[in-house]
Prior knowledge:
Blueprint: E1 2-11, E2 14-24, E3 29-34, H1 40-48, E4 55-60, E5 63-64, H2 70-76, E6 78-81, H3 93-100, H4 107-120, H5 122-126, H6 137-149, E7 155-159, H7 167-184, E8 187-192, H8 195-201, E9 204-209, E10 212-218, H9 219-224, H10 226-232
Parallel strand pairs: 3-8, 3-9, 6-7, 7-8
Antiparallel strand pairs: 1-2, 1-4, 4-5, 9-10
The chain binds adenosine-5'-triphosphate (ATP) and magnesium ion.
Magnesium ion is lined by residues 40-41, 83, 159.
Amino acid sequence: MLEIQNLEVSYGAIKAIQGISLKVHEKKIVTLIGANGAGKTTILKTISGIVKSKSGKISFCNEEITKTPPHQIVKKGIAQSPEGRLIFANLTVLENLKMGAYLVSNKKIIKETEDYIFAIFPRLKERISQQAGTLSGGEQQMLAIGRALMSQPKLLLLDEPSLGIAPILVKTIFEKIVEVNKELGVTVLLVEQNARLALKISDYGYVLETGKIILENESKALLEDKEVQKAYLGI
Ligand SMILES: Nc1ncnc2c1ncn2[C@@H]1O[C@H](COP(=O)(O)OP(=O)(O)OP(=O)(O)O)[C@@H](O)[C@H]1O
Ligand SMILES: [Mg+2]
């Protein structure tokens, strides 16, 4: 569904991504793990079209999107829930969700998606008219994921959904990601510092180190890999 070939991205003199190739197959959950500054967010932003690549090719559903502008990428079916959540603090929960659907014209579909989001995140339903900036961190994370889902994505890009969230809620959020994948059939590319949980819910994983992929395998195999255990799982 998504294929990246020899991607290079630079910020001025900083070579953030140095020739990366990866694939995300339809209906799978694929995870990208790596330390701070490895380039995880940069990869997601490049897929979304927010950051421009220096070279390489990105294809989505067999169509090249390397130079496609961000709003058209959303239209093609890719939505990103950004790191640090970035919800609209002065808008209500419902208004934030509606913003996610700005490219969807079918009102019935918008309503159905809203209902689905409120069913998986009942906390959001209870806070439907609350200003998003006053939600707790975990609730803002749910809202960011919900807002991304409002655009009817085929591929959901999640940047550190567990960031700053209490362990008990982290588990819930990961369960919801699996639910969205299994029930809605949304393909997921997940970036996480919480490598253990991410590998547990995903099918395949890539390990990123200073802008390069150093390892890739079935998530199950990565969980049992001695190097991965030492560097990322604290075993
Ligand atoms: N706008 C920017 N301008 C200059 N350098 C940047 C910019 N954005 C990112 N970088 C640099 O690119 C590298 C990769 O950053 P990126 O945010 O992709 O890492 P990350 O893997 O998401 O890290 P983290 O786990 O801390 O979120 C870092 O060295 C970072 O300092
Ligand atoms: Mg990041």
